[in-house]
Amino acid sequence: MAFSLAEFHQRNHSTILRQWAEKLHREVGAQYASRPLEELMGTVSEAFEANHHVLVHDNFTYINEFIGKITKMRLEAGFLLSDVQKAFELYRMIVIPLLAKEASIDEFQAYVEKINQCLAYTIHRFSDHFQDMHEKGIREHNQRLEEEVRVRTAELRESELKYKTLVEEINEGYFVIQDEVIVFANKAFCEMHGYSLGEIIGRKFYEFVDPESRQKVVDIYAESILGRSGPGSFEYLRLSREGKSYPTEITAKTARYERKVSSIGLCRDISKRVEMDHRIREAEKMAYIGQITTSLSHEIRNPLSAVKMNLQIINRNAQLRGNDQRRIDISIQEVIRLERILTELLDFAKPLQVEFAHCGIHSVLDSCLELLDMKFMEKRLSRMTSYGSAIPDITGDGEKLGQAFINLLLNAIEASPENGRIHVKTLYHSNGGKPQVEVLIEDEGPGVSPEFLSDIFKPFFTTKSKGTGLGLSNARRILDIHGGWIHVENRTPHYPRGACFHVFIPAGGTHGQDSHRG
Predict the structure, then answer these.
(1) Burial 177-199, CB ≥16 within 10 A → b, else e
(2) For the sheet containing 233-239, what is the strand order?
């Protein structure tokens, strides 16, 4: 029976609305957090119905009416444009995981594409509508100022100051360019690039554009100044004072500023939106890989079990001669290794199931170290533990966190020379009211080659002759679902050298659970 999106919506209606309203209230911004949950349930219910008409009936009437209503409501209440964009994006974040559980891969891909098209239309139309209304307010304000100039020339300077104050209060970067030079920028624009106003005024605008995007931005600027058609809104990489690049969106138009043809625009940071798109693409890719992995693993496991059973029967034959016994033993060991690899692949393909509860990070680490006693003894490695005092309990799945730490410790053991040391440390960070527990696992091996630092957490990436490359990937996967993260660095300033893995987990509360539900 074909999958029906209409029936899917009906089955999951209350779940989607509840999660949508809760995420709005909890994760998007201060304005949404201040609104009553009942009010948010009402707005997401209307948004849900509007999306339903687009996705199921290809009817855009309801979504257009909703965009007009919500734009006026949020603009009058002083909501950030980016926050309302995030609110629309939450539908995709909630629905795609639910779709993945119920739809086939072909149906999943088709509906994800429809959802992406629906949201692209909604967000672009909303952004344009929001911008038009915003610009309308600015134009009306300018018209009032011009009228006052004609009758009260003496108040010109005061009127200009009022206009600049209005622009300064905009949360997005506002700028004016004349002859390729920035002649005006607001505080938000300066903060986005990491410069003071005095360091920006008078400089060429392309100095604040990443070289990768520079020619594109210069060409668009030239087209607009010449009066040719060009995109009113486009994306590029802005360049900060520290030399870092950030995804940015500009909405600009040609107008007159102080009696000269100028390019006037707004720029907004879209790093989170780009990251969200990347995560969605990664999730779709991993779902496909998981499906293939599960199929192949089942096809291989059955003949592998038969080979293992026959080898064990042959091994009981007392008439084995010469090196035959050793050959049989090696074959059995390799079959066992293949079975372990298949188990890792199947674990990777399955959705991660976690059970959150309060647990002590030190007891989890001690259990992991105890389980790996024999591994330490085989290489005569010393375990050096340094636990911080007053480390609070965390909310998480102790068993799954143990798997993550075991993968990291196994990696450290394999990288360590004989008679080396492995350091396990814990630290507490208050982090401005969002406390974290940090776990450090350091080895004294050769470290990680710089060209591999950004790849070692990717699934199936490995530099070892034996291994699936899933250990570190699964560790990061477990940390992600706990609302934590992990990164690695080389201990190059220290002796002996080695690699250091930093694991950060929210301390106390229900942060991990919230992250999992999202």
Answers:
(1) bbeeebbbbbbbbbebbebeeee
(2) 181-185, 173-178, 260-269, 245-257, 233-239
Q: What is the DSSP letter of 431?
A: G
CA distance 41 to 315: 67
> 427 pairs with which residues across the strands?
438
Q: Answer for the pair 365, 492: CB distance below 8 angstroms, yes or no.
A: no
CA dihedral (458, 460, 461, 462) in degrees, to 10, reads: 140
**Which tokens go with 411?**
């990696």
* C-alpha–C-alpha distance, residues 381 and 421, integer Å: 5
**Which residue pairs, CB below 8 angstroms and at least 24 apart, start in 329-333?**
332/308
Cα gap 305→307, rounded to integer Å = 5
- State the Cα–Cα distance between residues 475 and 355, nearest whole angstrom: 16
Residue 81 Cα distances to 127, 194, 232, 264, angstroms: 7, 22, 17, 18
Residues 214, 236: Cα–Cα separation, whole Å: 8
Low-confidence ranges of the chain (pLDDT < 70): 1, 137-138, 141, 145-146, 148-168, 226-231, 282-299, 301-302, 317-318, 320-322, 340-352, 452, 454-455, 459-469, 492-496, 508-518
CA dist., res. 354 & res. 94, Å (int): 18
Which tens digits make up the pLDDT trace of 289-329? 666 666 666 667 667 777 777 777 777 765 766 677 777 77
**Cα-based distances in Å from 502 to 95, 328, 399, 437:** 32, 42, 19, 10
Cα separation, 394 vs 361, whole angstroms: 7
Give the number of C-alpha atoms closer than 13 A to the C-alpha of residue 382, restricted to the C-beta side.
6
Peptide bond into 496 cis (omega under 30): yes
Between the alpha carbon of residue 232 and those of residues 82, 131, 132, 175, the distances in Å are: 18, 11, 12, 15
E strand segments, 2-146? none
